[in-house]
Amino acid sequence: MHPRVFVSILTAVWLLHSSAPAQEPNAFQKGAQLTMLQINDVYETSPVGGLGGLARVATLKQNVARSGATPLLVIAGDFLSSSVASSIFKGRQMIEAFNAMGLDLATLGNHEFDFGKDVLLARMGESRFQYVVANVFDAATGRPVGGAAPHLVKTFGTLKVGFFGLCLVSEEISGDKRRGLQFLDPMTAAERAIAALHREQADAIVAITHLSYEEDRRLARRFPEISVIVGGHEHFPITAMVDRTLISKAGSDAKWVARIDLRRDRDGLERHLSMVTVDATLAEDAATATVVAAYDARLGKELDVVVATSRVALDGESRSVRSGETNLGNLVADAIRAAAGADVAIVNSGSIRGDRVYPAGPLSRRTLLAMQPFGNVICTLVVPGRIVRQALNSGTAQWPTAAGRFPQVSGLTFAIDAKRPEGDRVTNVRIGGGPLASDRPYTIAIPDYLLTGGDGYDMFAGQRIATGPEAGEIIVAALERYVTTRRDIAPQVDGRITIVR
Q1: Which region, left, alpha or beta, applies to residue 97 given φ > 0 means left and ψ of -120 to 50 means alpha?
Q2: Vertex 216: Cα angle to 215 and 218 (nearest 5)
Q3: Helix, strand or coil, per DSSP, at residue 482
Q4: CA dist 202 → 164, 208, 392 (Å)
Q5: Cα 49 to Cα 365, 373, 501, distances in angstroms
Q6: Torsion angle defined by CA atoms of residues 103, 252, 213 and 172, in that order, rounded to the nearest 10 degrees
Q7: Which residues face 231 on adjacent strands?
Q8: Is the Cα dihedral 222, 228, 233, 239 positive or negative?
Q9: Tens digits of per-residue pLDDT, 44-64?
Q10: 230, pLDDT greater than 90
Q11: pLDDT interval class at 470 (50, 70, 90)
């Protein structure tokens, strides 16, 4: 008999405020042998925009346990990076919060490799939860990285569940971050893990993955014996049936938790999914909240640490940066291009904040955050030259009116001819010292806001993405690294943008 699945996307009504006991679960949930609670792509320990917060997730797990169910809290990768806090603490704040909240199982995502092998091994060693990863190995030992289990079996009452983990192996993990590690094709690793779980006579197989949705779909089609794919990487909720396999992704930053109940009876395996909104109706678990608060306090002090010195004042006045080249605009664009290793970078000037001239002198992390407060990440695309030109024309369409879409650039120069019509004012575009070639491919680094059409930059839709928002580095972290490695900076206005009057 085919497994049965019941899927409902809703805010779970069985939760009350923590001051009152949880309501009785529904009839299906009451009979479930296992209740998986899924999060993925969690970069912040505290709520974001009123939703999320690991202390609330801890309370959710406790409420599920009090209701008589057996909860298993799982994260499907991406948590050590990237955030302002992670750039300072190298993900230690996430591990300590996970330990306090009672995380049970984790697989690795692409951002777990951002700080290299040594930091990853240190964080895994500090974890009090189990890692399950079938396709990432320590090159020195040939064994799964950090003592992770490639697969494992857990018994819940009469239900025997086999788990295995997979991490993506695409170019989103750059070569320098792979040093000392070996990656195996996810499908090959899955085949081996599933064969082992069959030998151990698992009643249900759960893949905990950090793959793209298309890769998860391929996995489900190739291995229909997988009951559930608990996935990550996409930053929005996804619930789908692919053949006989349930695929679940729970968004990002623990704003939602996917509750997946498994019940096996004589008719087969049933799966029920509901999406729980993590909001203020869930009180904060005290132990987890204490860890979060301690790191927040440390972060406040760390933000005042001086990381570099500027020998010149940095022009971040809105009127200047939104209508012409400024040295701060050049600095931010250079940092983005350097982080991506791209041919060029374009950044919308509206993302450069503060509306002031930052005086010459010490640069603290807090100052850098004031310049780049939005948490945008760097995306890298491969586009023909004509798309670069379209982007520049779109960005300058409102000139001479100051506008947030005005482009600050790196790796290229161009002119704005005020006599030409709106949308066709850009001339003499040069990249790397040579003229722009309309059909030649260029790598371009942009904020994720532009990738999604922000500020009218809709020309990037449908272009080839080399590094998407799920894998990009947060801009303020890239900016800090850029100035820290130089220690002493003096960016200039150097003729990247010329006004032809």
Answers
A1: alpha
A2: 65
A3: helix
A4: 12, 16, 57
A5: 22, 14, 45
A6: -90
A7: 209, 249
A8: positive
A9: 999 988 999 999 999 999 999
A10: yes
A11: confident
Q: Which CATH number do you get for residue 285?
A: 3.60.21.10
Asked whether the predicted pLDDT for residue 21 surpasses 50, the reply is no
Burial level of 164, CB count in 10 A (0-12/13-18/19+)? buried
Measured distance CA(110)–CA(468) in Å, rounded = 12
How far is 87 from 93, CA to CA, in rounded Å? 11
H or E segment to which residue 194 belongs? helix 186-199
Could you tell me the pTM of the whole model? Answer: 0.81
161 phi/psi in degrees, rounded to 5: -110, 130
Is the pLDDT assigned to residue 14 strictly greater than 50?
Answer: no
Tokens of 442: 């260029």
Q: Pairing state of beta strands 378-384 and 434-435? A: unpaired
For residue 18, the model assigns a pLDDT of: 28
Whole-angstrom distance, CA of residue 323 vs CA of residue 56: 44
Which structural domain range is residue 368 located in? 304-500
Cα–Cα dist 234/216, whole Å:
11
Per-residue three-class SS string for 61-82: HHHHHHCCCCEEEEEECCCCCC
Domain boundary residue among 248, 267, 299? Answer: 299
Q: What is the pLDDT of residue 170?
A: 84
* 402 residue type, one letter: A
Quote the CA–CA distance of 476 and 133 in Å, as a whole number.
31
Contact 29, 15 (CB under 8 A): no
Calpha distance 490→488 (Å, rounded): 7
Give pLDDT, residue 423. 83
User: Where is the domain boundary, 265, 299, 333?
Assistant: 299
pLDDT digits (tens, 9 = 90+) for 314-336: 999 999 999 999 999 999 999 99
Are residues 394 and 294 part of one domain? no
As a whole number of angstroms, the distance between CA 147 and CA 318 comes to 51
Same structural domain for residues 264 and 393? no
Q: What angle do CA 483, 484, 486 make, to 5 degrees?
A: 65
Tens-digit pLDDT profile for residues 242-296: 999 999 999 999 999 999 999 998 889 999 999 999 999 999 999 999 999 999 9
